[in-house]
Design a protein that fits this description.
Elements (H helix, E strand, L loop, with lengths): L2 H8 L4 H8 L3 H10 L9 H6 L19 H26 L15 H15 L8 E3 L7 E4 H20 L3 E4 L5 E5 L2 E15 L8 E15 L2 E6 L9 H75 L5 H16 L7 H6 L2
Parallel strand pairs: 2-5
Antiparallel strand pairs: 1-2, 3-4, 4-5, 5-6, 6-7
Length: 352
């Protein structure tokens, strides 16, 4: 697509409409306009057009026939995350090789892990606990649900994960028994550590009830925006996926920041345009009100002039009588009170 074609589009439709038409992201179109120095309308341009004004159009400088390959931008949008993810995984693996190795024994270096371990030991001491049951850690603890058989492995894995993210400048804290909060680059993610289960009949129940039976497969679940992202044991164990999990969440945090900033900028532009439109509506209404006012004032002036003519006619009769003189005084008072320009011409003009 030629530079002049994008320029013409920018001055004929809104960025949102063009982005949909060209099948690119809003921020991608914004990026193209900056990279190729293509001027675009300033906030308020479309409002002014709507109300019959002709705001200035910035001239396109440089080569108007320069070709811009939109396919490249579409492909970059689709593939850049995957490429950046692979690159970041490699960087984390090379820089934090030792930190990624899950130890064979729990280090007990982190306060959250120490607390979770104490909760685990307390649950095992409970007389109602069964060895195949899930142990859930509640208030003030990390959101963990795991069987005793795999608790040691899960705690070691979680401790390695927490120490890694903290070395990367991020943090994790408890919120309630349902989720923990992971903070990356200021963005907050809900995170859960779970052992996957299947539902089976409870052999000890006389009422045909069912129970959740742990499968031994561990899972890390993170809520990213409005979707849940899962990393599970499979052909690749979770221990081998830690770099991938951290890399993904870091990139998503940055992506969310960009999207939020773009949304904030768009909302600011929309708010600015709404204010302009409101002012334009007010101005238009005031113009109509002024027309009504001047017609009304003209009618008042005409009546006032007729009143003065009538009073002057009575005066010209020259009748010297107390009653007549009193009436004329009263009539002059009425005339002065109803003079449309009684406040002075400049004050009257200012009322418009």
């Amino acid at each position: 697509m030629k530079r002049i074609e994008i320029y013409n589009l920018l001055w004929s439709k809104t960025l949102t409409e063009i982005a949909q038409k060209l099948e690119v992201k809003y921020y991608t179109l914004y990026k193209i306009s900056k990279e190729y120095d293509i001027p675009r309308p300033k906030p308020g341009y479309w409002v002014q057009l709507k109300y019959g004004k002709q705001p200035p159009i910035e001239k396109l400088e440089g080569d108007p026939q320069l070709n811009i390959d939109l396919k490249v931008y579409r492909e970059l949008t689709r593939s850049s995350f995957k490429h950046l993810l692979e690159e970041r995984i490699n960087n984390i693996q090379s820089e934090y090789d030792r930190d990624l190795k899950v130890p064979k024994r729990l280090k007990n270096k982190h306060p959250l892990i120490i607390k979770a371990k104490a909760e685990l030991d307390s649950s095992k001491a409970n007389s109602y606990w069964r060895s195949e049951s899930l142990i859930g850690f509640y208030s003030g603890n990390l959101s963990i649900s795991v069987s005793n058989k795999h608790a040691s492995r899960f705690l070691r894995l979680i401790e390695t994960f927490i120490l890694l993210i903290e070395k990367r400048g991020h943090s994790i804290k408890t919120r309630d028994h349902k989720v923990s909060i992971l903070t990356i680059y200021g963005e907050k993610f809900e995170i859960k550590f779970r052992e996957k289960c299947v539902r089976k009949d409870d052999p000890d129940s006389r009422w045909s009830s069912t129970m959740l039976v742990p499968t031994g497969k561990l899972s890390i679940r993170v809520k990213v925006k409005f979707n849940d992202k899962h990393w599970n044991d499979g052909y690749t164990l979770l221990e081998e996926q830690l770099a991938k999990i951290v890399a993904y969440l870091e990139l998503k945090a940055k992506e969310i920041k960009i999207e939020d900033e773009e949304r904030r900028r768009r909302n600011e532009e929309l708010e600015y345009e709404r204010k302009l439109e409101s002012l334009e509506l007010y101005r238009t209404q005031w113009e109509e009100d002024k027309k009504t006012k001047i017609l009304k004032d003209a009618a008042l002036w005409e009546n006032w002039m007729r009143l003065n003519s009538y009073i002057n006619y009575i005066k010209k009769l020259g009748i010297d009588n107390p009653k007549v003189n009193n009436w004329l005084n009263w009539a002059d008072t009425v005339s002065n009170a109803n003079d449309p320009l009684g406040m002075g011409l400049l004050s009257y003009i200012d009322s418009y």
